[in-house]
Amino acid sequence: MVFLNGAIIGITIDPQRIVSTIRAVRRNGIISEFVSVSTSAQQRSVYIASDGGRLCRPYIIVKRRKPAVTQYHIDELKKGHRLFEDFVDEGLIEYLDVNEMNDASIAVYENQIKDDTTHL
């Protein structure tokens, strides 16, 4: 089943494809950066949340054991050539709510990044 803000809106046989697609369009700025998507493996369900009032925190995206934000990006930010919002707009940072954090593998420090790490 697929839920949007708690209401059933459809069914799927491929929950992971829906999740991957929504995350891709969010990272490309097609939908709001505050739209959350998570799964329940037991129930084979997808939960999409776009309602207000959810606590969302920014996390650096990690791909292939490398943080998307590099020292170059940090230097640009320090010089005033970039804003924090630029990192979100460029798909380097994304906001996760508590439900999506349960699907993520988050490293606190860069030296803790492993093969399955998704965020820093």
Automatic annotation (TrEMBL):
<comment type="similarity">
    <text>Belongs to the RNA polymerase beta chain family.</text>
</comment>
<dbReference type="InterPro" id="IPR015712">
    <property type="entry name" value="DNA-dir_RNA_pol_su2"/>
</dbReference>
<keyword id="KW-0804">Transcription</keyword>
<dbReference type="Pfam" id="PF04566">
    <property type="entry name" value="RNA_pol_Rpb2_4"/>
</dbReference>
<dbReference type="GO" id="GO:0000428">
    <property type="term" value="C:DNA-directed RNA polymerase complex"/>
</dbReference>
<feature type="domain" description="RNA polymerase Rpb2">
    <location>
        <begin position="84"/>
        <end position="115"/>
    </location>
</feature>
<dbReference type="GO" id="GO:0006351">
    <property type="term" value="P:DNA-templated transcription"/>
</dbReference>
<keyword id="KW-0808">Transferase</keyword>
<keyword id="KW-0548">Nucleotidyltransferase</keyword>
<dbReference type="Pfam" id="PF04567">
    <property type="entry name" value="RNA_pol_Rpb2_5"/>
</dbReference>
<feature type="domain" description="RNA polymerase Rpb2">
    <location>
        <begin position="2"/>
        <end position="63"/>
    </location>
</feature>
<dbReference type="InterPro" id="IPR007647">
    <property type="entry name" value="RNA_pol_Rpb2_5"/>
</dbReference>
<dbReference type="GO" id="GO:0032549">
    <property type="term" value="F:ribonucleoside binding"/>
</dbReference>
<dbReference type="InterPro" id="IPR007646">
    <property type="entry name" value="RNA_pol_Rpb2_4"/>
</dbReference>
<keyword id="KW-0240">DNA-directed RNA polymerase</keyword>
<dbReference type="GO" id="GO:0003899">
    <property type="term" value="F:DNA-directed RNA polymerase activity"/>
</dbReference>
<dbReference type="GO" id="GO:0003677">
    <property type="term" value="F:DNA binding"/>
</dbReference>
<protein>
    <recommendedName>
        <fullName>DNA-directed RNA polymerase</fullName>
        <ecNumber>2.7.7.6</ecNumber>
    </recommendedName>
</protein>
